[in-house]
Amino acid sequence: WEETQNELILNIEDNGVGIHQEELKHIFEKFYRSKSSGKKPGLGLGLYYVKTIIDLLDWDLKVESKIGKGSRFKLIIIQP
Asked: Residues 39-54: pLDDT tens digits?
């Protein structure tokens, strides 16, 4: 984590299969399942709910991903 005068930044990383760049713009959509998720169980709701809550709190969430390397989610918490 990082802290600035008015932000707390949490970095969450994995070493998974990664997400294709063209799919990144869709991962927060309700019921969206990445092609790389294959036959893994799920409904495509998890990241949708996370983003909904973050938006309600007026925070920010950014994501970077590289195929074969994994993904990094950056949660930016705006401190009042």
From this structure: 778 888 999 999 999 9
Return the SS3 of 54.
helix
* Burial state string for 19-51 with b = 16 or more CB within 10 A and e = fewer than 16: beeebeeebbeeeebbeeeeeeeeeeeebbeeb
Alpha helices in the chain (DSSP H): 21-24, 46-56
Look-up of token digits 């991962």: 27
Judged against a pLDDT cut of 90, whether residue 64 lies above it is answered with yes
Q: Full-prediction pTM beyond 0.70?
A: yes
